[in-house]
């Protein structure tokens, strides 16, 4: 089954929508407010909950909880409605987003504990703003105790506000690809590392994915610190293909 369409046993998914050709999808704050307005309507109409969100210049992240049939309805509504509004406002035509959104299953709380800070810290990793100063993510909703995300659920997950802040503290940049000393790591540990990075997906499934989904999975493993050689062994994808997968 394709990587981005696996069903989650927890009904929680990490969703990413990117601009076509990495183009800007939010020209200004009015665009961002419009996306959030459409998202709010879609969440209510499709009975989907939200655990995290972050709007970047050329893409956005959601961590959503809902039935496998409701998530596609939500994303079709959000992406198509926003694309029409964006094109009308900026007098443009053509596709705004890069194909279908990516949807990764979140199978357990352990992964969710790393995913929520990952989503919120996108602006910091991109060099745009410290996490606590960036206005276009759900970090502030949690810290202020209200918003479109399930604040009570998140605080319970992180053990309160102190635990939430600690999880978002700057721990330095993520390891560069190839820096983990994996020759000293047991194969079982490498397999578990890959599964964790892929949200519970078995790395052996990567080889059969559609090209875009495959490259996204390979890039996720590399950005998580796995070596090209380890990825080749775990996925069965050739070293050349792994190396060429875009990291942007």
Poorly predicted spans: 172-182
Q: State the CATH topology of the largest domain.
A: Alpha-Beta Plaits
Supply Rg.
18 Å
Give the overall shape, derived from the CA principal axes.
globular
Please tell me the overall pLDDT. 85
> So how many helices?
11
Report the end-to-end length measured between terminal Cα atoms.
25 Å
Spatially, the strands of the biggest sheet line up as 2-3-1-4
Describe the oligomeric state of these chains in a short phrase: single chain
Protein name: Transposase IS200-like domain-containing protein
InterPro entries: Transposase_17, Transposase_17_sf
GO molecular function, one term: transposase activity
GO biological process, one term: DNA transposition
Can you describe what's shown?
This protein is α+β, with helices and mostly antiparallel strands and 248 residues long. The protein has 2 domains: 3-167, Alpha-Beta Plaits, CATH 3.30.70.1290; 182-244, no CATH class. It contains 11 helices and 4 strands. It has helices at residues 29-46, 70-89, 109-120, 122-125, 139-144, 151-158, 161-167, 187-197, 211-223, 228-235, 239-244; strands at residues 12-18, 49-55, 59-65, 102-106. The longest helix has 20 residues, at 70-89. It is globular, with a radius of gyration of 18 Å. The two termini are 25 Å apart. Residues 172-182 have low confidence and may be disordered.
Secondary structure layout:
Layout: E1 12-18, H1 29-46, E2 49-55, E3 59-65, H2 70-89, E4 102-106, H3 109-120, H4 122-125, H5 139-144, H6 151-158, H7 161-167, H8 187-197, H9 211-223, H10 228-235, H11 239-244
Antiparallel strand pairs: 1-3, 1-4, 2-3
